[in-house]
Amino acid sequence: MVADVHIPVLDDVDPGTALTAVIEHGAAFIKRPGTTLFDFREFTEALMVPMVHHATNTIERDPVGADPSTSTVNKGMDAIPLHREGSYAPGCPDLLVLYCERPAAAGGETVLCDGAELLRRLDESTRAFVSDLDLYWSWEATPARWQQTFGVTDVALARVALARVGGLLRPYERLDGDFQGDVLHGRFRTKAVIPSNGGVPSFCNSLMIYAYRQKSDYYARDSFRVALADGSPFPADLLAEIREVAETVSVRVSWEPGNLAVFDNARFMHGRTGFDDTGRRVLIRMGHLRKR
């Protein structure tokens, strides 16, 4: 890991200052002693309209209090490869904000990778290959997942909510989906390279987590698949090359209690290093930018 990717460190939990930093740099750290869970919620409410992750209230993530839009991060303790949150489905969050209540005694750092700088550093031929590349994600969402996402328990109401999702599609996205029984089956087209919230092209997707994280109780890998337009997988040799370059533009966040990290989910991919401390507690909120 190198430190030549500039992520500003702020000393105040001010939404306007943080948003300016995120638009310009893609991410910001906030290190103000004594920052509380209440501060975390107030800060994120000012920045974005929070959303509920589909894995909340499953074995993967626990809600924090009565509002499921605040949850634990993935409860496994394994290392998690770089990924863009929710990139396999429409309406994925604009922003992610992490809050540390208790760091791991060792390990458990959050890894942030600037996808814009990654794209710039790729070999010219690799950059040309990915720059306008369509990715096709297919998946199945069980009731436990779509009920969290849509906030309803009835399939008929979920179909109405699914239709509304069409209004959230970006110009380069397409969704085909419907229910088979009570399981939602979807096929989602997106790009490997997308514009950040600051308008910068960025290699920001979930190819690496899909390729390199093993299935576990905390990662339902078999529920997702990704392919290119012709049905072939993303070339393994190119992904290995991209992974190597990503290491050079990634930074590790060594947490302290009360620290926050806020980042553009269309520019910075994130992951974590492994750990074995069951007391580690990092919380997450995500959502869509409020109109200003």
Strand fraction band?
Answer: 25-35%
CATH topology: Double-stranded beta-helix
CATH class: Alpha Beta
Mean pLDDT across residues: 95
- Global structural class: alpha+beta
Explain what you see.
- The protein has one domain (9-289): Clavaminate synthase-like (Double-stranded beta-helix), CATH 3.60.130.10.
- The chain is 26% helix and 32% strand.
- The chain has helices spanning 15-25, 37-47, 115-121, 124-131, 143-150, 155-165, 207-212, 236-248, and strands at residues 9-10, 27-30, 48-51, 63-64, 67-72, 80-83, 95-102, 110-114, 134-141, 174-180, 183-191, 193-195, 201-203, 224-227, 250-253, 260-264, 268-272, 281-289.
- Strands 1, 2, 3, 4, 5, 7, 16 and 18 form an 8-stranded mixed beta sheet that branches. Strands 6-17-8-15 form a 4-stranded antiparallel beta sheet.
- The radius of gyration is 18 Å and the shape is globular.
- The two termini are 36 Å apart.
